[in-house]
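Researcher: Go.
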Amino acid sequence: MIVIILFLYFACIEASHFYGGTVTWKPMNNTDNGSSIAVMFTQSYQWSRSHSSSTYCNQSTIVNQSPLLCAGSGTLVCTTAASTCGNYTALDIGEYCTDFSVVADSSSGQIFHVENITAGAEFYVAYTGSSWIGLQSSTCGSSGKKKRHSSGGGSGTTTKRTTVLTTTGATCYSTSAAWSIGTCVNLTVRPDGFINTPPVATVISPIDVSVDTLTAITIPVIDADGDYTSCRWAQKTATLDECGDVCQSAPGGVIDGDNCTLTFNSTGTVVGQHYAVALMVEDFYDQSTYTPFSRVPIQFLIHIVGAAVCPLQPQIS
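Model: Structure:
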């Protein structure tokens, strides 16, 4: 039995199998004024279904809610000083399978945990590991350096929060790209007297994109507080590694932050290639403010497929 457990553990933390995911949280009562706040943490990850028994899902797995995907293979940990973590305890990433696709070779899951966190606490949590499935990388050396242009604007402006990513040179293939997917937990009280509830973003990975096309991918975002939301490229910062080895790794991708839409140019790509997209969704009091209440990750794959046999949409007259 010990041998089996160890095999499943290493099968889920090594080799190429990660498809992306998201992590978010919310206070169970956003008007709670006690010394500790009940907080629900939600983890949603996607995996290569055929990778191993630890990532395999079928209808029986869903109905029986067992076994959990990748149980015991990793944890969502506090990445800031222990004294600032508000009594947070690391959470296992093992999740109930909620969906699978034989065609896309994917298993999707989700798991909820509730913890009592010190009121007013601010800290970061993240799940890190290796590896993404085989990817095209834009950091192959000097010819693959990235440029990032951001039209930010100061407080009080209404400048569109649009981030443009451009790359030069050829891309290389990697089977060892690490992931880091995390969020900022902030239980301080907002100016309107509530504890913030972060936005929720969902994407089914991978997303198929036809070769040699310009494709707009809109990320569905919901904010329970009705806040203004915006998307941006994930970054490595002093406080949180938001993207591991896939920071801004979608060559030629353009983000319209206001609409959370990624425009991906697949010109010059090859059928069968995969590109990782790592974004952060932030919520603001309104469009004129530029300090977010929170930030949550959304990471997924773009899969290059052949051109559509019937590229024109049918019309009904």
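Model: DSSP finds two helices and 21 strands in the chain.
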